[in-house]
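Example 282.
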Amino acid sequence: MKIIRGKRAGFCMGVALALKKLDEAISKYSSKKIYTLGPIIHNPQVVNKYAQDGVVPIEDISIIKSEDVVVIRAHGIPRELHKKIEEKGSIIIDATCPKVKKAQKLIEKYSLDKVLLLYGEKDHPEVKALLSHAQNKGMVFSSLDELKKMDIDPHKNYFLASQTTQQRQEFMEIVKLLKNKFGKDFPILNTICDATRLRQQEAIEIAKKSDVVIVIGGYNSGNTRRLAQVVRATGTECYHIQSPDEIFPDMIKGKKTIGITAGASTPEFIIKQVEKRLQNLK
Ligand code: SF4
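Predicted structure in complex with iron/sulfur cluster:
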């Protein structure tokens, strides 16, 4: 049995940077309470590890006090929320990914005289934060089909942007549709992150060479779920798992080549554990 591991599997730049900032905050503010707004990344094992260091993920900011430290994760947070925390006087460590920050700034600029059409998942924290930079007036859709059903006013000026982790292929179809409808000058902000695109491309290549592909990452990680989707679209058997205990002999029985890839929030130690488990099951 041969195992092909994706070179791009695991942490992206934004996630690595956010964890670095959290580690620095833990050493610098050892006597203070440290909160993250939502889990620092969408990976339960990593979140549990930080819980042991006293880092508490919260959804409701009412418990934050002026002396506390608040770490903003890579997805960013809505502007209104940022302002409320600032008003409390708490120490804010902004670990928003630089690429997400760039998307926020571009959306803010274009929203001055246009309405945002945002290709993304409505309930995703990054999408909520991006929307806040369009004065919460944007329209969110998660697929080409959904966009087709939306009530778009032909007399308004729109522009298109995307959640950083969306699928490039579908984004390009969306671009085509909007350019056909509004003309070739329709404004497009290509805010899809390269890390996602390259990881997805690599996953497709691995899927073509493999009998089965194991995609590792949190079930709540959007980019991991999409990675599994692009692999499944190739027709290759695929399993999305969160930890090595979810691999059973039946999944790899009779398979000659097994591909491995992982989402942007999957730590290296879990990828290694999965490789080891597969080798032990050989
Ligand atoms: S996937 Fe891209 S945009 Fe998202 S956190 Fe990672 S580097 Fe940043």
